[in-house]
Amino acid sequence: MIMGLVVDGHCDTLTVIESQNRTLGEYSKVGQLDLQRMRSTGVDVQLFAIFINPKDKDMALKKCLYYIDKFYSELYQNSEIIEHALNVRDICRINSQGKLAALLSIEGGECLSGDLAVLRVLYRLGVRSLTLTWNARNELGDGVGEGEASGGLSKFGRSVVREMNSLGMLIDVAHLSERGFWHVAETSTQPFAATHANCRFICNHPRNLSDEQIKYLANTGGLIGLTFVPEFLDDQKPGLEALLRHVDHVASIAGTKCIGLGSDFDGMERLAYGLEDVTCLPVIAEALLKRGYSNDDISDIMGGNWMRLLKQVLK
Question: pTM for the complete prediction?
Answer without folding.
Answer: 0.97
